[in-house]
Every structure is written in C-alpha cells, then in structure tokens.
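HOLO CASE FILE
Compound: zinc ion
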Amino acid sequence: MFICPKCSENTLLIEKSVQVTPLNPMSNDELVQAISCPCGFTGLGLYKESSAGASESINHDGYELSEQSYHALLEILNNPQELAKIYATSFADSPVEVNWRGIFGLKRAS
Ligand SMILES: [Zn+2]
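Model generated. Tokens follow.
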C-alpha cells in the first residue's frame, strides 16, 4: 500500500505492474504500473532501479491519469508489444494522456 496523493490515506494500490525493457542502459529494472485508490484516484506509476558501481538508486514516481487514460493504460499493460512501443516514446501518440508535470513520489505506507 502507498500514500494516495488525493486523499492522503495509505490505500493507494498497484493494480498491475509490468516489466519493460529499460530505456536507460544503467537501469536494472523498469516497471510500468497502473495505480488506483478507493477514493477514485487513478494513475500511472513508473518504477526505476539502477545500480552504477556501488551506488544503487530507486525512483518510484506517480502521475495522475483521467479515468479514460487509466482504462487505456490497463489495456496496454496486457499487450507487451504495444507497451514497449509506447514506453519508448514516453507515451507520445498513445491513448494514455500523461500530465508529466503532475508528478508525485510514491511513498510506501509504513
Ligand atoms: Zn485516495
């Protein structure tokens, strides 16, 4: 469970998480996620884990999506080929409209 940016409760869930080919050659792991909360919040999660030498870094960012874009994202997550294509172009020309400025950090509920 994660903290929801809309209701501030620890009820934000990762509904679906799919591994993609990293865009960054330093990355070990990159995941595209559909996230939602019972309060009605729907969004996109991007998880990136990289290790360069001794240092390891993890980025886990979220973006709010409209309900329409969220449903489009869920469909794309079931289609690895389509997902790879869209991910490589940062979701350009995709039915998932991401507001990249509406970024928030995904915080795990303790
Ligand atoms: Zn919420």
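CASE NOTES: Helices lie at 67-77, 80-88. The two ends are 9 Å apart (CA to CA).
CLOSED: yes
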